Amino acid sequence: MTEAEAQELLLLNQRLLDSIAAKDWPTYAQLSVPDLTAFEPEGAGQLIKGLAFHRFYFEPLTEPPVTQQSTMASPHVRLMGDVAVVAYVRLIQRRNPDGTLATLAFEETRVWQRHAGQWRHVHFHRSLPTASR
Fold first, then answer.
1. Within 10 A of 29 (CB to CB), how many other CB atoms are there?
2. Which of 9, 50, 89, 99 could crosslink 73 through cysteines, CB 3.0-4.6 Å?
3. Does the pTM exceed 0.85?
4. What's the CATH fold of domain 3-132?
């Protein structure tokens, strides 16, 4: 794997995280395959299939918005032909409507697959850090 390939995947992954933070559904859907699969805390131990479950979290709330940004800490990229795995700890910094600040951490692994020359997000696993359980 070249440094350029690793950098491209890290930039795409950051774009995906930024779309989540901004609740930018069109970008998230563009970067993901329609049959995306996931294990995440919101799924209560179930394998989530498809984008409908995720779209719910992009819908606007009636309360004031929360400002947040995501940072990938210690990212690692593994390229296996037309498949790549990006693993990292995601730090989410939040500014709540009342001005309070909070930082959340999640262990994340995202799987990308090259489709017709473009990388698409096909699976992810997100969990609370082992140290915080």
1. 17
2. 89
3. no
4. Nuclear Transport Factor 2; Chain: A, (3.10.450)
Name 128's Cβ contacts closer than 8 Å, sequence gap at least 6. 41, 105, 106, 107
C-alpha of 80 from chain center: 20
Residues 31-89: pLDDT tens digits? 999 999 999 988 888 999 999 999 988 887 666 666 888 999 999 999 999 999 999 99
Decide: 108 and 126 in contact? Cβ < 8 Å: yes
Q: CA-to-CA distance for 39 and 18, rounded, in angstroms? A: 20
Rounded-to-integer distance, Cα 73 and Cα 14, Å: 11
Work out the widest C-alpha separation in the chain, in whole angstroms: 47
Q: Is 21 helix (H, G, I), strand (E, B) or coil?
A: helix
Could you tell me how many residues make up the chain?
133
Q: Which two tokens stand for residue 96?
A: 């709540």
Work out whether the CA dihedral 15, 64, 56, 41 comes out positive or negative: positive
pLDDT tens readout for residues 105-120? 999 999 999 999 999 9
Q: What pLDDT is recorded for position 56?
A: 85
